[in-house]
TrEMBL record:
Protein name from the UniProt record: JAB domain-containing protein
Residue ranges annotated for the MPN domain, each copy included: 106-228
Taxonomic placement: Bacteria, Bacillati, Bacillota, Negativicutes, Selenomonadales
GO biological process, one term: proteolysis
GO molecular function, one term: metal ion binding
Length: 229
């Protein structure tokens, strides 16, 4: 016999639990069930939510941020309307995280850089190289993409990096890029590109203060590792 949500006690139903106690106490399955809203004649909405999460088990929950709507909609019991709801919720969460991070206006260390940049980069599937521009008091003037793709000297050219800094009259900058693998350990190429841009910063009188590599909920500061020069 299939147990439907309506068969559960009221205080055990996902939507009612959320309204009574807030979303923090709900599991991923229950949160997803709230978005899906209804099940089918054969399956409860909780069962469909479990199957969606199981479908992405190998790639992890973050996979939902990248999947096309057609792939999500193809899961039995989801369909196009529910897929659109899930993806809209994921994007709204991403934008809220970015907005919260951007409330930090002053950089005092790599942890501030990571806090500001991680919501933008953590779900990207390709490497993004960006520059964080600072004024004389280390207030953030902006975070700007320079290139997308592999981090190579031929792609990350000082001309493009410092053109943005000059346009914004930046006093200094911090280099950033993400590792889609989730491991922020710097590669030899990362170190070589950093050295090249540090040298260019000295010539341009726009010092490169750090290079922060973003991974999955982790980051590495090349300055902290003694790899900046």
């Amino acid at each position: 016999m299939t147990i439907m949500v309506r068969d559960l006690p009221v205080n055990e139903r996902p939507r009612e639990k959320l309204l009574a106690s807030g979303p923090d106490g709900l599991s991923n399955t229950e949160l997803l069930a709230v978005l899906l809203r209804t099940g089918t004649h054969e399956k409860s909405v909780l069962r469909i939510a479990e199957e969606v999460l199981a479908y992405y088990k190998e790639r992890g929950l973050v996979a939902i941020a990248h999947i096309p709507a057609s792939e999500l909609a193809a899961i039995h019991g989801v369909g196009q309307a529910k897929a659109a709801t899930i993806l809209a919720a994921v994007e709204l969460g991403r934008r809220l995280a970015i907005a919260e991070a951007e409330s930090a206006e002053v950089v005092s260390g790599p942890e501030d850089v990571a806090h500001f940049a991680m919501p933008r980069f953590r779900f990207e599937q390709r490497e993004h190289f960006a520059v964080m521009l600072l004024d004389t008091k280390n207030h953030i003037l902006g975070l700007h993409d320079v290139s997308v793709g592999s981090l190579q000297a031929s792609v990350v050219h000082p001309r493009e990096v410092f053109r943005t800094a000059v346009d914004y009259a930046a006093a200094s900058m911090i280099l950033l890029h993400n590792h889609p693998s989730g491991d922020p350990t710097p590669s030899r190429e990362d170190i070589a590109v950093t050295a090249r841009l540090v040298k260019a910063g000295k010539i341009m009188d726009i010092p490169v203060l750090d290079h922060v590599i973003i991974g999955r909920n982790r980051y590495v500061s090349l300055k902290d590792k003694g790899l900046l020069s």
